[in-house]
Amino acid sequence: MQNTMEIYLDNASTTRVSPEAARAALEIMTENYGNPSSSHTMGRVAKSALDTARDQLANALGASDPGEIFFTSGGTESDNWAILAGAESMRRRGRHIISSMAEHDAVRKAVDELESRGFEVTRLVPEDDGSISVRSVAEALREDTILVSLMMVNNETGAITDIAAIAGEIKNSGSPALLHTDAIQAFLKVPFSAKTLGVDLISVSGHKIHAPKGVGALYVRRGLKLAPIIFGGGQERGYRSGTEGLPQICAFGEAVRTGRELMEQSIEHMNSLRQLAIRRLTSENPDLMVIGGGAPHIISLSLPGYRSEVLMNFLEAKGIYISKSSACKRGARSHVLEAMGLKNEIIDGAIRVSLSRYTTREEIEIFCDAIKQARESLFRSPR
Prior knowledge:
- By secondary structure, this protein is of the alpha/beta class.
- It folds into 2 domains: about 20-260, Type I PLP-dependent aspartate aminotransferase-like (Major domain) (Aspartate Aminotransferase, domain 2, 3-Layer(aba) Sandwich); about 265-375, Aspartate Aminotransferase, domain 1 (Alpha-Beta Complex).
- It is about 40% helix and about 15% strand.
- It is built from 13 helices and 12 strands.
- The chain has helices spanning about 20-30, 40-60, 75-90, 105-115, 135-140, 165-175, 195, 245-260, 265-285, 310-315, 335-340, 345-350, 360-375, and strands at about 5-10, 70, 95-100, 120-125, 145-150, 180, 200-205, 215-220, 290, 300, 320, 350-355.
- The strands form 3 sheets. The protein has a 7-stranded mixed sheet with strand order 2-8-7-6-5-3-4, with helices on both faces.
- A hairpin with a 6-residue loop joins strand 9 (about 290) and strand 10.
- Helix 3 runs parallel beside helix 4 (about 105-115).
- It is globular, with a radius of gyration of 21 Å.
């Protein structure tokens, strides 16, 4: 099968903006461009659009109240705010934090910062698929534990951590610890609800769900008070100052609305393509390994003995775009796969393929053909 088109299979890094989201942004930029803080008619129209987007996020996240949703510049800010402000808000009750060795750098480096401020951090070792077990959290809990921060869907392996069960364990233990989950790879891909998860803080991001880059949100459980990390004019009810990026926010809201409507069929579609890819890849390529798994949109695999950079270049020459691990790593070896205890030759041959609702069966077939061609034509390093 000859490929004459570009095939984008790096949706865990970022997604194409949906037509609905693009139209929403354009309308705010060119028609309803008032400042939501202004009291005149155009300001009130803008404020109404902001409220609508907040309602859309609240409904999709299963929040009890739209007031639990705060817009941010993206997932990194949401993670940083939740972790830094969450820990500081609990400082009088202890200084022990639980996270894991498999978190995104937006969490890892925020936790490192807290450690430099005198907090004590327990970094849990992931399971064989990259998830974090309920048992390991239970064993790490202490009387002075004040914050637990764990990713719901691992951004490199697609492994799913049972956040609801961890929330139950924290509650049953009597611990006062806040629970934060980075749900950036889970949102609209793995069903969950803030009401049933039992968490205090949830981070989500727009550009992972077909909204533009530069917008995200943080769910803050009603009654929980976080200190702001950005000061100024008092926007976002005084917690996140700065004129709201309304074009991105409204696009985010529309992406959430359409994504929620299409969620069931999108999950089914991505799961079907994921299973197709795994069947073909494992049957046609001896020694190929599928790493982790669980989420419908992420396939982490390795061809031991082949360099991931070489595989990526081979595929890119055919118009196929994938990634080595997290796009934020910029060539560094995956800390997630290292934490899972995988051999160097497996890590060095690992690539991540990630799907969206726009991915087609034809694209997956072409990708599988290309992997087989790469295995047969590229030089394999001696073991």
